[in-house]
Amino acid sequence: MSNQSDQFPYAILDHAKERIEARNILLTWIQETIEKPDKTEPDQTDTELEIAFKKFKIVMVAF
What we know:
By secondary structure, the protein is of the alpha+beta class. It contains 2 helices and 3 strands. It has a 3-stranded antiparallel beta sheet, covered by helices on one side. The chain starts with 13 loop residues before the first helix and ends with a strand.
């Protein structure tokens, strides 16, 4: 990942880093989705997680 990850305030798993790079997703999109989601809903398989959605780009984040 580029140096933008040095300032990213959330931990990113290696698997997620690979997906982010492969899909050219900006970390700023992920951060904005976590901090200001348009919609959230519970994860269907893990009740401790929430899925966040943001309309500017389809980005699904489990946190």
